[in-house]
Amino acid sequence: MIINPFTLIRTRRNAETMLARLGRRCLSFLIATGEAGRLCYSSCHSLIYDPPRRSIMVQQLYHIGYLSLPVVLLTGTSMGMVLAVQSYMTLHRFNGDAMAGPMVTYGMVSQVGPSMTALLVAGRAGSNIAAEIGTMKVTEQLDALRVMGTSPISYLVLPRLFACTLLLPVLGALSGLIGILAAAFLCVTVWHVDAGSYWYQTSIYVQRWDILMGLAKCPFFGLIIGLVACRQGMRTKGGATGVGESCTTAVVEASLLILVSNFFLTMISNDIYYFFWP
Predict the structure, then answer these.
(1) How far does Cα 54 stand from its chain's mean position?
(2) What confidence tens digit (pLDDT) does each residue in 179-203 have?
């Protein structure tokens, strides 16, 4: 059998190209992690030594929290009703209709409420933050702030980062609550599940730890959204095209990091629970 030497050369070049791409991806990840860490440190330093004005904080709380409330509540209602339909239709075959309450409530407070809320805020507020800061970057407004003696971290990054971290638990709690109520209305009113059994089974199987751990994830998600969106905005270049790319990259990176961190946070919370209450 005759081996073509050019085939071996081509295979070697393809392998080297794949390794080079993998190396660039790893370097990009490490650089992004370092930049996010520096941005977080600079924000904490500004919070202590150069806090922003109250009016700017209130404005960001309004834009990120209040304006995101309708879509968060609508999504929470929809997800609660979807979980109710799936749970009831599955359990009805085994005459376990009342157990739909614990399934829906646990899913909403521990997973669906926090993660879906974070994804929605990343799509709505994260893209807005990246676009706003990116536009200021390409139009040299950030340089103008530095010339006037104003820190862009204190004036732009810190209020948005603080608002995302502070408001995600509130939005996640409201999303979970409205989803639980929508599911209960559907099960009790439409399908005539016994209300006493529904809520009694829920109180037995859904513990305070589940609610607390679901809410404890939200500040981490908010921090991820704020850091990723602000970082992408601060490193924008290339005019209007660069602003659009920064928005897309911010939403994609924040969504992926939310999903990955949700997995690890869930594993950590379960390990902590079984460590103290085996």
Answers:
(1) 25
(2) 999 999 999 888 888 888 889 989 8
Instruction: Count structural domains, the chain.
Output: 1
Region of 95 (left: φ > 0; alpha: ψ -120 to 50; beta: rest) is left
* Coil/strand/helix, residue 1: coil
The residue whose two tokens read 């040299």 is: 140
The residue written with tokens 């209305």 in the block is 185
Longest CA span, the chain: 79
Single-letter amino acid, residue 3: I
Domain hosting 138: range is 53-276
Residue 35 lies in a domain: no
DSSP 8-state secondary structure symbol assigned to residue 53: P
How far is 267 from 123, CA to CA, in rounded Å?
25
Nearest CA to 35 out of 243, 233, 247 is that of: 233
Contact, 168 vs 227, CB < 8 A? no
Question: Is 91 domain-assigned?
Answer: yes
Residue 32 lies in a domain: no
Radius of gyration, CA atoms only, the chain: 24
Ranges of H-type helices in the chain = 5-49, 54-61, 69-91, 100-107, 113-121, 127-138, 141-147, 152, 158-184, 195-205, 208-234, 239-276
pLDDT of residue 256: 92
This prediction's pTM: 0.87
For the record, the structure tokens of 112 come out as 């669906």
